[in-house]
Amino acid sequence: MDKKLAEIRKRVPALSLQVAGRDLVYLDNAATSQKPYSVLQMQTSLSEAASGNVHRAIHRLSVEATEAYEAGRAAVCRFINADSVILTSGATASLNLLAFCFAERYLGPGDKVLLTEAEHHSNLVPWQMACARKGAEVCFLPIDESGEPDLEVFARSLDSRVKLVALPHISNILGVVNPLEEMISIAHSRGIPVAVDGAQGIVHAKVDVQALDCDFYAFSGHKIYAPTGTGVLYGRRSLLEEMPPYMGGGDMVGHVSYGQTTYNELPLKFEAGTPNFTGAACFAPALTFASELREDAELQAYGRKITEYLMEALPTIDGLKLYGVPKDIGRKSGVFSMTIEGTHPSDLAQLLDQMGIAVRSGLMCAEPFVSKYSQTGMLRASLLPYNTMDEAEYFVQSLRRAVKMLR
Ligand SMILES: Cc1ncc(COP(=O)(O)O)c(C=O)c1O
Q1: Cβ of residue 92 lying under 6 Å from some atom of ligand 1
Q2: Which segments of the chain belong to CATH 3.90.1150.10?
Q3: 25 in ligand 1 pocket by Cβ < 6 Å?
Q4: Percent of the chain with pLDDT over 90
Q5: Each residue of 230-250: pLDDT tens digit?
Q6: How much is the pTM?
Q7: CB of 123 closer than 6 angstroms to any ligand 1 atom
Q8: 162 FRET partner, CA 20 to 30 A, in 13, 33, 200, 316?
Q9: Using one digit for the tens of pLDDT, what is the confidence trace for 34-75?
Q10: 2-31+296-406: what CATH class?
Q11: What kind of fold does domain 42-289 have according to CATH?
């Protein structure tokens, strides 16, 4: 296993960095992943050699850029078993597009959109904005610190005013896989569509949008080894067909006259302007890398061991409280958020940085959920399959040391 992991890590150059004179221990993967050479090299080679714009000219550079862009889209479709996807600049862009366009078509005064209490701001603020515009209301399904929704409460929340459920596959704080299949089936039994914020889910869970039967699924490329400025929105064709476009401009049109415009077919109707085609093309090598790690049973079992270790070891630190402790540990992904009595998360993160460890601290773009626990911040360590047990152990030892230094 050590040899296999060393080989994988060699393919991701940032993992060999030194920070504060030590080997970097990168545990901020829920914020962004480190990219393998295959992605970095494709990004460079496309920037050097194929800078034609996509879907426009008939010259060779444009054709090659279009082919690379569409190959990126095809790789995404294969990865999530979708017939087609809209390419965006990230999960935030996907969720804003969705909230705006869904609201335009389907929301009116008195309607409700049901979210969970544990949303990232990207799946909260766009809905607040859209509902304010339409006279609709955002309401919230309770989630406790174990990280799991109560399905009976969920079913009871779905009254006739609820026009959409929008929830994370995995919360960026709790790291617990939501029971999407059950929730989608309950919502669909009342005729309510379900949108999934998959920014963390795409990284830690296997996603098959057709088997899940979700109506929308949004995620960012940069959290799953693709470059920044890349994202995806999958949507059920029948709903997308009905929704108006988001932005107007090149590529999203059918015919334009001075008086009126017809729109392009899906997915281009929602892709106005020049996209980040070099970035999107890199979905192909990024998702090949992700699939390779995901399909390696030995690596997956090793990842489960690290999760189990952290779930046991972290609570042995005096005053530490973990958020996201599901009854079934199999539902816990590699995202660990915590607070530690008598210490501030930013001070801990600062000390850990001096020990070569990168973790996240603060409100983690989920201020209402963090505030619910009367906290002004949390500390979060998040792992990917390229992290090692040694790193997890070093993190726990270092955190223990940092807590002692602050008390
Ligand atoms: C659950 C969740 N949703 C949405 C986002 C937004 O992603 P991005 O900033 O890449 O658009 C994040 C990013 O951390 C996230 O964790």
Answers
A1: yes
A2: 2-31+296-406
A3: no
A4: 94
A5: 999 999 999 999 999 999 999
A6: 0.98
A7: yes
A8: 200
A9: 999 999 999 999 988 767 888 878 898 899 999 999 999 999
A10: alpha beta
A11: Aspartate Aminotransferase; domain 2 (3.40.640)
